Backbone:
């Protein structure tokens, strides 16, 4: 589960954000919406420990990640937070399976090959295990990054505009998958998006 | 796993990788080759000098004298009078004196008249058969025996002079009585006999030449031999000097042959007026090393050359060329370093998302730093390994041609651990240097910014 208290962030002069407190428990979903420039991505990066807030607390499963050192944070992030980004990035030289396995190795030091294979099959990527990520379509790439985000069964799954570059069919497919998998793994799911299509799917919503 | 990613990454851009590796391979190969050549060359040269304090020979270039008489690579400077040389050979300062007389070759391998002491000087023993005693008995160097498949008891004819194509002295065959043990020194590529054999072979030839021409004049004999366009001077000296005696003495073992000259003298070879090519001297009193060259130059028609000094001179001459090559190789290494740097730096722009992603997935800054470093080091180590191999392959080719020309071969499997170790460290250093800026950039990457600006 995740909860935040009084988090502030500013990019130097002028742009300062003050975010509402949020709380999501295991298996639940939260949709954060808002127009451009409202700090959606910033909030997501704060939640994911990619950036540190000026003040406030971010508590994920009893750990206040604001207090962690850089190295501890890297480790914590790898183990407990899954991230799905708007655009999918991969290690271009590794194939699909290796990219997912890599995430498990970075977090735990073990290579969860079987689990990765299983997850990818569940996401309908069975035929693409040994292709390079660049050989997949955008929708397929997005699914690979979901598999990668979930390989370590994180406590928190963060998704940044996961559907904005997809057509309706794929967008709903991805949204369904995220919701379904979050339940399956008992993961708190936080999605930031301006995609109106998702608003009907996720009842818990906060607008920035 | 990081190493695996690094490995996959470098092969993901095969052209960049190939360029870096080729450049590194080239520089490492050249340097390795130079290291091996220098090492083995110097060792070969120094091994052969061992136990030779001074060489006594005909006037001319002292370097040529050393090269011809110690290393058997150049033409001799000329001949010296044996009687005169003997005065110096028996001097109390002298510990040992080994006379050398060059005459013929067999298939390009020199046949050298000397004493059995020559073998022991190089630490060679007669491993098979026995040492030469009588005229025309020879001991064959181990390399020659191996290459030509010569066995004890074999007979062969020598050709005149240094060149394989020289006139064949077919009136007398040499008989192999022994095979020398391998030493890795010049003696492996020589055929040794006693000095009398060389004299006898040539005296005999002169007669035949003279007879054919029906002209006993010195000039005619000299002319006959002028046709052999090699080491002319030496052998002409020889011939002219010998023509006097051509008709005046007997040749051991030639008895059965028809010679219509007088047999005034008995079976013992008269050393009067005979010539040899050089004498290898070792002194009891080392002061002589510094005094003799001048004394000999002033009082005789001979010269005394010091192998140590001449070889140093030779190395200095080479040294310029070797250094130039070495600078070239280091230059190529610098370029390969720059090439690795550019390759890493260029891909950094595309790869910053990869790096951000790795961080998101829990990779630490240090892991990113090491990823970049390992990529560079993999290139360098691969380049080093290839370079070491290519350098040795080049040495095999060089060894092949130097073997043909100078009877000097190099061992490509020798490792000069110290110098090659330094070269390895240098290569690694280049790798680290090339990677340092890209690695630090990867280390200090701001993930949030990178991902937000996507």
Residues:
């Amino acid at each position: 589960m995740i909860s935040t208290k009084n988090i502030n962030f500013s990019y130097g002069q002028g742009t300062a954000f003050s975010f509402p407190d949020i709380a999501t428990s295991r298996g639940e979903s939260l949709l954060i919406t808002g127009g451009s420039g409202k700090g959606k991505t910033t909030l997501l990066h704060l939640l994911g420990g990619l950036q540190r807030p000026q003040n406030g607390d971010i508590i994920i499963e009893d750990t206040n990640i604001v207090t962690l050192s850089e190295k501890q944070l890297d480790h914590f992030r790898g183990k407990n937070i899954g991230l799905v980004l708007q655009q999918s990035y991969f290690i271009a030289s590794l194939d699909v399976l290796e990219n997912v396995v890599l995430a498990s190795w970075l977090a735990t030091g073990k290579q969860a090959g079987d689990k990765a294979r299983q997850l990818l099959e569940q996401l309908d990527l069975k035929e693409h295990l040994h292709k390079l990520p660049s050989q997949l379509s955008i929708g397929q790439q997005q699914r690979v990054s979901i598999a990668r985000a979930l390989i370590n069964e994180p406590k928190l799954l963060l998704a940044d505009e996961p559907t904005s570059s997809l057509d309706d069919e794929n967008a709903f497919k991805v949204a369904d998958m995220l919701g379904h998998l979050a339940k399956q793994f008992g993961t708190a799911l936080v999605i930031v998006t301006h995609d109106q299509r998702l608003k009907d799917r996720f009842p818990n919503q906060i607008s920035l | 796993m990081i190493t695996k990613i690094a490995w996959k990454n470098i092969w993901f851009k095969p052209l960049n990788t190939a360029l870096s590796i080729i450049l590194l391979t080239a520089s490492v190969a050249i340097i390795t080759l130079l290291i091996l050549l220098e090492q083995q060359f110097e060792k070969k040269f120094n091994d052969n000098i061992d136990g030779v304090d001074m060489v006594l020979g005909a006037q001319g270039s002292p370097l040529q004298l050393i090269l011809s008489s110690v290393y058997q690579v150049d033409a001799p400077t000329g001949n010296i009078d044996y009687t005169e040389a003997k005065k110096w050979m028996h001097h109390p300062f002298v510990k040992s004196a080994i006379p050398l007389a060059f005459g013929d070759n067999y298939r390009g391998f020199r046949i050298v008249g000397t004493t059995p002491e020559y073998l022991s000087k190089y630490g060679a023993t007669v491993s098979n058969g026995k040492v030469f005693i009588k005229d025309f008995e020879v001991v064959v160097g181990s390399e020659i025996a191996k290459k030509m498949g010569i066995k004890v008891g074999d007979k062969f004819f020598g050709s005149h002079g240094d060149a394989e194509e020289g006139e064949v002295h077919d009136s007398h065959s040499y008989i192999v009585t022994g095979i020398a043990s391998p030493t890795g020194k010049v003696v492996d590529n020589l055929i040794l006999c006693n000095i009398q054999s060389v004299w006898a072979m040539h005296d005999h030839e002169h007669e035949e030449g003279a007879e054919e021409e029906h002209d006993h004049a010195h000039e005619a004999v000299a002319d006959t031999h002028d046709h052999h366009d090699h080491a002319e001077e030496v052998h002409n000296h020889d011939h002219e000097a010998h023509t006097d005696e051509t008709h005046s003495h007997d040749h051991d073992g030639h008895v059965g042959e028809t010679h219509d000259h007088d047999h005034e003298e008995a079976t013992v070879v008269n050393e009067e007026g005979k010539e040899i090519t050089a004498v290898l001297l070792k002194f009891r009193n080392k002061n002589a090393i510094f005094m003799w060259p001048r004394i000999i130059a002033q009082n005789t028609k001979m010269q005394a050359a010091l192998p140590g000094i001449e070889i140093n001179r030779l190395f200095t001459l080479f040294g310029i060329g070797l250094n130039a090559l070495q600078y070239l190789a280091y230059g190529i290494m610098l370029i390969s370093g720059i090439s690795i740097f550019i390759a890493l730096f260029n891909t950094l722009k595309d790869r910053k998302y990869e790096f951000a992603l790795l961080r998101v997935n829990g990779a630490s800054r240090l892991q990113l730093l090491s990823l970049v470093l390992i990529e560079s080091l993999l290139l360098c180590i691969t380049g080093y390994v290839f370079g070491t191999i290519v350098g040795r392959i080049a040495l095999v080719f060089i060894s092949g041609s130097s073997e043909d020309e100078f009877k000097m071969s190099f061992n490509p499997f020798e490792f000069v651990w110290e110098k090659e170790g330094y070269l390895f460290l240098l290569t690694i250093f280049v790798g680290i240097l090339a990677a340092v800026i890209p690695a630090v950039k990867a280390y200090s990457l701001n993930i949030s910014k990178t991902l937000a600006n996507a």
